[in-house]
Write a structure and sequence with these properties.
The chain is mainly beta. The model is unreliable at about 20-25 (pLDDT under 50). The protein is built from one helix and ten strands; from the N terminus they run H-E-E-E-E-E-E-E-E-E-E. The strands form three sheets. Strands 1-6-5-4 form a four-stranded mixed β-sheet, with no helix packed on it. Strand 7 (about 105-115) and strand 8 form a beta hairpin.
């Protein structure tokens, strides 16, 4: 058993095993799964994409906390079993999942939208508009005794 888990644990990422599930789990074992996610930043949004195959809109909950933590959670219900059913293979997981993302300071947590389409959940978090600041002109008082003020000027370019 130790050799099995030793092969799953890459040395460069000690937490990688948390995202992997052995394929020989018992059918009725309740597990917490991590939905695979991508996160990219565009000029106007943070876009987080999660794979949630077979999930419906009502099965997923998205929460944005005041401390800029975005939490996505849900539960994939197991398929109903009838008496006499015999499973030959059960690789698809069911159960609860959750993911958390700490959003950066430029994320506007009051402007979040989400779309679920074809088993892919796409969450867009608007970025706070950054004002382009103009260079400030600073007056420099001459100390050479001439009594004349020297002024800094704005540099174009």
């Amino acid at each position: 058993m130790e050799a099995f888990y030793g092969n799953m644990l890459p040395s460069e990422d000690p937490f990688k095993i948390l995202e992997q599930t052995p394929l020989n789990l018992p059918k009725n074992l309740e597990t917490i799964n991590l939905a695979r996610a991508d996160w990219k930043e565009t000029t106007t949004h943070h876009v987080i994409t999660l794979d949630v195959p077979g999930m419906k809109q009502g099965d997923i909950k998205i929460e944005a906390e005041e401390n800029r933590v975005l939490r996505v959670s849900g539960e994939r219900k197991p398929e109903a079993e009838n008496d006499g059913d015999k499973w030959h293979r059960a690789e698809r997981t069911s159960g609860k999942f959750w993911r958390q993302f700490r959003l950066p300071v430029n994320a506007y947590v009051d402007k979040i939208n989400a779309v679920l389409e074809d088993g892919v959940l796409r969450i867009k978090v608007a970025k706070v508009a950054q004002e382009k600041k103009q260079a400030k002109v600073v007056a420099i008082v001459g100390g050479d005794g001439s009594g004349e003020d020297v002024r800094a000027t704005k540099v174009n370019g």
